[in-house]
Amino acid sequence: MKLITAIIREEKLDRVREALIDAEITRITVSRVSGHGQQVEEGIYRGQRVIPNLIPKMRLDIAVNDEFVDITCNTIIKTAKSDRDGKGQVGDGKIFITPLEECIRIRTEERGGKAI
């Protein structure tokens, strides 16, 4: 079992979510987050150039069995990447894959892959 955490652009959320559902990945958790990396958004405020410290993003947390890791990651990559010659842009996001030690469904007390 793995926990896939993806940080994507806000405007890509609906497209990514629909693509995951089409790929039969239906159990996701979505959170609004802020952060910064290489992406820099400049703005003008009262005539001065302003670079905000944190940029709003969306965080997707998806627990999957091992056989769904590649399907999930490839779907996110394909739909979250900005369409600029297929190369994407700075700020398209990141995907983190971490081992998931245990999963327990509270209602039925099922454990492991069946609980996902």
Protein architecture, described:
The chain has one domain (2-115): Alpha-Beta Plaits (2-Layer Sandwich), CATH 3.30.70. The protein is built from two helices and six strands. It has helices at residues 13-22, 69-80, and strands at residues 2-8, 29-35, 43-45, 48-50, 55-64, 93-99.
The appropriate CATH architecture is 2-Layer Sandwich
For the biggest β-sheet, the strand order reads 2-5-1-6
CATH class call: Alpha Beta
Helix content class: 10-25%
What is the averaged pLDDT score? 89
The structure class reads: alpha+beta
Unreliable segments (pLDDT under 50, ≥5 consecutive)? none
The helix/strand series, from N terminus to C terminus, equals: EHEEEEHE
**Strand segment count:** 6
Characterize the quaternary organization of these chains.
single chain
Largest sheet descriptor: 4 strands, antiparallel
Strand content: 25-35%
Radius of gyration: 17 Å
Distance between the termini: 9 Å
How many individual helices? 2
Topology of helices and strands:
Layout: E1 2-8, H1 13-22, E2 29-35, E3 43-45, E4 48-50, E5 55-64, H2 69-80, E6 93-99
Antiparallel strand pairs: 1-5, 1-6, 2-5, 3-4
Helix pairs in contact: 1-2
Quick structural overview:
This protein has 116 residues and is of the alpha+beta class. It contains two helices and six strands; from the N terminus they run βαββββαβ.
Record keyword descriptors for this entry:
19% helix, four-stranded antiparallel β-sheet, alpha+beta, two-stranded antiparallel ribbon, single chain, 6 strands
